[in-house]
Amino acid sequence: DPKIIQKPKYLVAVTGSEKILICEQYLGHNAMYWYRQSAKKPLEFMFSYSYQKLMDNQTASSRFQPQSSKKNHLDLQITALKPDDSATYFCASSQQDTQYFGPGTRLLVL
Amino acid sequence: GDSVTQTEGPVTVSESESLIINCTYSATSIAYPNLFWYVRYPGEGLQLLLKVITAGQKGSSRGFEATYNKETTSFHLQKASVQESDSAVYYCALGDNTGNYKYVFGAGTRLKVIA
């Protein structure tokens, strides 16, 4: 059974719209993260949360807002979508120093 | 800043041949980085392949191994005999062990193993 669930797997959006990427982890971890991988670029750290509190934010744009309604959830709301936001977004979780990743949500903004 | 550089792909290797994927890192803000190799098989997410948190130590998994070399700031991934099922994208990453768990990834190396 998958331990980190990301929904949806694929997402197509129009420029200017808003989308929410879902992440749930069933590993019992206290820390969760978001990373982004754009075409031909490395995975890039976006946010880290610990016990539902924001620990680090490396995303310059306020259009990206993580939302943690439960300890094992960390969703990512993206507003005013732009074509440059097209990427695969990975959620991860950790208990100590090893992060475990979800399968990713592939977002295409037209 | 911190960075990871790895072999640029794609890398094509014949089955049963040996493999090395180079990884070098720069950890200017992390005194004692943890080093990782992740693998992404087609259609799947990132999986942890191996990790080493102590300089001089070697990690191994599924026939792959990598040694944390602090002198050369390297963490090369090696396998003596690859199989078709090893075809995937391999990512080298470094992490902080002080509680700031932002990972820095290399660009990934696509490996294709041919029969």
Give a verbal description of the structure:
- The complex is a heterodimer of chains A (110) and B (115).
- With 110 residues, chain A is mainly beta.
- Chain A has strands spanning 4-7, 10-13, 19-25, 31-37, 44-50, 53-57, 64-67, 75-78, 87-94, 99-101, 105-109.
- In chain A, the strands form two sheets. In chain A, strands 2, 4, 5, 6, 9, 10 and 11 form a seven-stranded mixed beta sheet that branches. Chain A has a four-stranded antiparallel beta sheet with strand order 1-3-8-7, with no helix packed on it.
- In chain A, strand 4 (31-37) and strand 5 form a beta hairpin.
- Chain A starts with a strand and ends with a strand.
- The model of chain A has no long low-confidence stretch (mean pLDDT 93).
- Chain B is an all-beta fold and 115 residues long.
- In chain B, the strands form three sheets. In chain B, strands 2, 5, 6, 10, 11 and 12 form a six-stranded mixed beta sheet that branches. A four-stranded antiparallel beta sheet of chain B has the order 3-9-8-7, with no helix packed on it.
- The N and C termini of chain B lie far apart (41 Å).
Radius of gyration of chain A: 13 Å
Number of helices in the DSSP assignment of chain A? 0
Largest interface: A-B, 25 and 24 residues
The rough form of chain B would be described as globular
Proportion of residues in extended strands of chain A? over 45%
Biggest β-sheet description of chain A: 7 strands, mixed
Helix content of chain A: under 10%
Number of helices of chain B: 0
Span between N and C termini of chain A? 33 Å
Strand content of chain B: over 45%
* Low-confidence residue ranges of chain B: none
Mean pLDDT of chain A: 93
| N-to-C series of helices and strands of chain A | EEEEEEEEEEE
